[in-house]
Design a protein that fits this description.
Elements (H helix, E strand, L loop, with lengths): L2 H25 L10 H11 L3 H17 L23 H5 L4 H4 L5 H13 L6 H6 L6 H31 L3 H19 L6 H21 L6 H13 L3 H14 L4 H14 L2 H13 L6 H10 L1
């Protein structure tokens, strides 16, 4: 190849590279100028490798268009935001082994007892604390040890959570945040305290804390105090024979929610516990005259009291 032919080849190659760069610039006009600049690397390769670089990228482009640029068939693909419920097959072996822990403790076979205990722990342990407490008296040392470990962990978490949230409630400045914390803590404490898994002294202490939390919420925004929370604090106070506090919350419940069943049942339980027959029957008569629908549990309660 003569020098003239070589310089002509370089000139043609340079024109091709310049045209390639110009075409990419025009194609990207109006887009982010700092976007993908891969074409500059390709242009540099084509400039430094005359003919070979151009042929390589040209053949790559042709092969891609011929073999790899086919449209994707999305006929069978569903783009839907609707939630789909998945149904899992029940674990029949485990369900057959589910029995109340009270009955499991009476089982003399240690292997079965341990299996029953494990099935209970696999569920919502926080709702089964009173049942797990019974397992502490099991003759099987492994079962009683495991029950003690589970109880200790849950109750320690309870103590820590209550202490932390009580500090935040008492030292917080945002009333809305304090109200939210109070509501969450009332539900959390009531779920554990109603199972009576603490010693009498500690139970009374936590009930007193629950009373102070409800007082805080009541003082910030009385109308945010729900009937369920009023029932919870009333019954927990009644459990530890804090009659003055129980009477206070029963009265507040009757004032805020006079046509709610829980307001009547709380008062009935309180008057029955104090042996105040006059107020008990007066409340019962008021319940009969009201439009409140009495459920089966309340009817059984009234039959037992009468």
């Amino acid at each position: 190849m003569s020098k003239a032919e070589f310089f002509v080849l370089l000139a043609v190659n340079s024109l091709i590279v310049a045209g390639y760069v110009l075409w990419n610039l025009l194609r990207r006009k109006g887009t982010n100028p700092k976007g993908n600049r891969g074409y500059l690397v390709k242009a540099l390769v084509m400039f430094l490798c005359p003919v070979a670089g151009v042929c390589y990228f040209f053949l790559s482009y042709v092969l891609y268009k011929v073999f790899f640029s086919k449209d994707v068939d999305l006929a069978d693909v569903i783009f839907s935001k609707e939630r789909v419920k998945s149904y899992m097959k029940a674990d029949e072996d485990r369900e057959r082994n589910m029995v109340p822990l009270e009955e499991a403790i009476l089982v003399t076979d240690k292997d079965n007892l341990r299996e029953y205990m494990m099935n209970v722990v696999k569920g919502d342990v926080q709702k089964s604390l009173s049942s797990i407490l019974l397992a502490l008296n099991s003759e099987d040392t492994e079962t009683s040890h495991y029950a003690a470990s589970v109880l200790q962990e849950i109750l320690n978490n309870f103590r820590t959570t209550v202490q932390k949230n009580m500090y935040e409630i008492r030292n917080g400045t945002d009333d809305e945040e304090r109200i939210v914390r109070c509501g969450i803590l009332i539900d959390y404490m009531n779920q554990v305290l109603k199972q009576n898994v603490f010693s009498e002294m500690e139970q009374r202490m936590f009930v007193s804390e629950l009373d102070s939390i409800c007082e805080c919420l009541y003082s910030i925004d009385t109308m945010r105090m729900t009937a369920l929370w009023l029932e919870a604090v009333s019954m927990r106070c009644l459990d530890v024979r804090e009659y003055e506090k129980c009477e206070k919350w029963c009265a507040r419940s009757a004032a805020l929610y006079p046509n709610t069943l829980s307001s009547f049942t709380c008062s009935l339980k309180y008057y029955f516990s104090r042996g105040d027959r006059e107020q008990f029957f007066k409340t019962l008569e008021a319940l009969k005259r009201s439009d409140v629908v009495i459920d089966r549990e309340t009817l059984e309660l009234i039959r037992v009291f009468i």
